[in-house]
Amino acid sequence: MNLELLAVFAGASIRLSAPMMLAATGELVSERAGVLNMSVEGMMLTGAFLGATFSWLTGNPSIGLLCGMLGVIPLALLQAFLSVTLRANQIVTGIGINILALGGTTLAYREIFGERSSAAIPGLAHWSPPVLGKLPLIGEPVFGQVWLLYAGLAVLLATSVIMRRTALGVALHATGVAPRAVDQSGLPVARIRYGAVLFSGVMSAAAGCFISIGDIHTFTEGMTNGTGYLAIAAIIFGNWKIGRTALACLLFGAATAMQFQLPMFGLHVPTALLIMLPYLLALVAVAGLIGRQTAPPALTQPFKR
Amino acid sequence: MNRHMKLQTPLASAPGTQSWRARWPHLRVACVIAAAVAFAMLAALALIALMHVSIAEALAAFADGAWGSPYAIGASINRSLAFALVGTGFVIANRAKLTNVGGEGQLAIGGIVATAMSLYGGCAHLPFGLSFIVPMLCAAAAGAVWGGVPGVLKAKAGTNEVISTLLLSFIAVWLLYWCVQSEALLRQPMTNGATLPESLEIPDPTKLPAILAASGMNLNIGLPVTIVLAVASAILLARTRFGLALRAAGLNAIAAKRAGLPITSSLVGALALAGAFSGLAGALMLQGDQYSLKAGFSSGYGFDGLVVGLLARGSITGVFAAALLFGFLRSGGINMEMVAQVPSALVLIVQGIVTIALAGGALWLDKGEARR
């Protein structure tokens, strides 16, 4: 085992955890406000598709990313309308949107790309931080990442500060704990929840774009392949705290990266076990085996004035 | 459905002045559901037109695949069985306001266990039809365990069953993948490089016996088994102490506990039963249709079953209607893809729209029922 391989492994772990981190940042805000947005997976897929399509059409991946993030807004509005205004079962609407997104993107992909399915799609540029990227041996493999990753980290930090230090953050927390109290203090519960779901949708789309135009540079049917659910699992494992959730994403990313890296180290662990690991860890966490779970009390509870 | 509502004093209104909607809430619900399905179908037709495929051709292919021949009808019905079983389980758990999202995984576990028992459990040599009954029972038992764990977690640690059933579902699906990838587990012996990652075919005695063979519909005893179980479930929910405890637990768990009803065991029992039904569905799919375990064995049937359970809105009759709808939709969709080059993803869109429309409409549907 040498340093170079380890650096490659660390870089791969970070790269694979990035979409989870992006999606989990948005999802955490939504869950903190009391809406379990189960449609992250579908929104990621939609974002991935729109990002790839517009990147391919315009030749500019940044425009693709923008289109992906904007294009998912109707879907996010739908989810918010169903779960906040219509007070529908959030899990059901989420699964419904996931099914719809899988069907819709598959159909649209076949229609638009058809025979050209192997067309190369321009991807987002790489960037490495000034000093860290210049480190010998480990600089490039670890820190030379798609810029969206660093943008996502910035959003994560900003979210964490906003959640902890601002009136908006306090209101968000309170909406997921005691919506009635929030309502009685004169704040609009519905509007806060709409905002949270929209944020979750846009971040999910960015996460999807990271996969399609950041990492793989193409679109394939159902390409998110459960990453959205992993983001939800990371939040559970992170006990609805933003720092721990980010660490959980990194851990899950490392577990995914191990599939490709362990054979290089001469170790043979069943792939399925590694893919299963994040879900197992989340289950252990949610079963209360590692500390008390503190899900927002009003999570999945619709609010009626 | 919602018999408890009768306990409340009905809104004071003379019989003649009530609107038809208040008098026949079931009719109202049926109308809303039919409207949602019709809307989704129209959307699908519009999409087909957009794709420059002749609608007549696509519809002909759909009809052909769904009910065009006895064999097609049989295939659609066989598909419906899995949906009906998962949906029935969902309805049972939902009576206690529990949402079992784990049908997909419970189905996979059922498939794994049924395969293991059929191939390596020595079931092939059992007499009196036990050769196919034992794998089915084992699959149901394994599903019950997989479904019961979230129940225990809910009772002991207060874990939200939606989250735990969903996580367990993913674990089971990857467990299945592991089983068919590893020779030490269920993968067939590798004789050459082209050996597919799937199990051996199960021995003939463990396959489900055919019924009505002369009809050419390729039906098996899964059909009567499903019907009997569904009727039994309807009776269980409507006429037994267990059913009452479930309903009470769903309405007000604390009050029910004070009244001396066994709430904890009812919750665990309901989820375990839901798991058992899904596990059995896995066994039916394997022993009645696929005969060997492959990666992607469950292929979304568990999630479809969940949607079926939702559409049924607590009624077992509704489960059958929705299961048949989905069974025919899937069969027709597959044929449409093969014959008319319309991607079967269209079926997913229809299912998604129906699910979203009914989830969103729940507010009005519930209001209609509560008015009784």
UniProtKB/TrEMBL annotation, chain A:
Entry annotated with the keyword Transmembrane helix: yes
Membrane-spanning parts: 35-57, 63-84, 91-109, 142-163, 194-216, 272-291
Pfam families: BPD_transp_2
Topological relation to the membrane, as annotated: Multi-pass membrane protein
Matches recorded under InterPro entries: ABC_transp_permease
Top-rank taxon, per record: Bacteria
The name this protein goes by in its record: ABC transporter permease
Species per Swiss-Prot/TrEMBL record: Caballeronia jiangsuensis
Phylogenetic placement of the source organism: Bacteria, Pseudomonadati, Pseudomonadota, Betaproteobacteria, Burkholderiales
From TrEMBL, chain B:
Major place of residence: membrane
Keyword Membrane: yes
Subcellular location as annotated: Cell membrane
InterPro entries given in the database record: ABC_transp_permease
Membrane topology, from the record: Multi-pass membrane protein
Superkingdom as given in the UniProt entry: Bacteria
Residue ranges of the TM segments: 29-51, 71-93, 105-122, 128-149, 161-180, 221-238, 259-286, 306-329, 341-365
One Pfam assignment: BPD_transp_2
This protein's UniProt keywords: Cell membrane, Membrane, Transmembrane, Transmembrane helix
CDD domains recorded: TM_PBP1_transp_TpRbsC_like
Name the record gives this protein: ABC transporter permease
Organism: Caballeronia jiangsuensis
